[in-house]
Amino acid sequence: MAARLIPRVFSAGLAPRASFQFAHATARSQFLSMRAIATKKYTPEHEWVLYDDATKIGTISITDYAQKALGDVVFVELPAIGTELAQGDNIGAVESVKAASDIYAPISGKIIEVNKGLDDKPGLLNADPEGEGWLCKIEASKPEEIDSLLDEAAYKQLCEEGHQE
Amino acid sequence: MSLRPVLYHIFPKPLPYLPALALQEKIHSIQARSRTTSSTGEKEATQSSLSGSKHPDILLLLEHRPVYTAGRRQDAVALDEERKRLVRSGAEWVATQRGGETTYHGPGQIVGYPLFDLTRMGIRTREHVCRTQTLLKDYLRDRHNVPSFESTHTGVFVSETEKVASIGMQVRHGLTSHGFAINITDEPLRWFDQVVACGLADVRAASAESARAQFTGKRVPLNIREECEVLRDMFGEVYHMPVKSLDEAEVEIWQAVKEVEAVAEQAGEWPREPIQT
Q: Which Enzyme Commission number(s) are listed (chain B) (predicted)?
């Protein structure tokens, strides 16, 4: 669209405005394509993965809904770096109020980083589960698995359906 | 609400820990398998996808033979010296995948394993732990006239330094294992004295029988089977489900239960107090 506008605008002698519109349109399309690279998807069991298409790296943790459901986290068990996992494999556990809840890999891949901050501050998982409370990063071996997960709208709907208390 | 009953079983004799743990794992895998077939074929289910599923929710009520267990976050290697000392005193020692830290189980203490499908029930983990804890407090108050001491720690206390019941659970895909333990008679107390239980150095174990004697001025010997029945009924009320006895209709589970009972029968007597060496 921007490309079509420019010749006409230039011919009308409105060069400065045109170049601003062109630059703006280009920046917008770049911005849109940048947004498409990082996708956040969810599992029915309240894990999320923020997947970066360019690097093939997914950051994994549990959702705010999950941390509320667990209670105050006192201990987080994280996988060893280098562990290879299939989608659905046990990835560790979160302990709260004397219940150890297993966490599962949303996608297959190799663990390349774990959040060491959770060793001293397991409470981060309650305070900021979708930010500072990330659990680990995985290098995806089957990126197509991302498509099988829930998007934000579907996940929100699931949470609303499940709400009993 | 669902009319699906909780199937319960009260074991007649104290069970050795490992066969009972294997029984829990067997029931867990039967429940997990049933969820896979009833939902879209994936392991991760939702409450609606489970509505047609057939696997039962189970409540096992039992005593164990003397055993010390550690929880998931503890380092079994670091505990090796302690393990040897405790085994010498006549108990087993097992590292488990439940939450919580070191505790003791043995005759005179009721252990409950609610093996529930929380996703299907529409209950979340914290809620389940909270209900169980409240149930145990209500049991002490209503059955034995013993008020609980309000503590920030999970479990049930009768004073700041005396703990009568513990909770330690594991949740996998919304299916629970392990559960709670409540001291009924004084028999477990000498065994508790051998460890720092639940990571609380200043806390000692107490029993329902002794606490009741303290609060009512009269010691009444308690019967484990009767107390199991009271707890069973309370679970039914709290989770809004009828309770029904587990029987041969659940073929696989019944067979596994009978096998564990046979092992317990053959195991014979157990030390009534820690062996002093």
A: 2.3.1.181
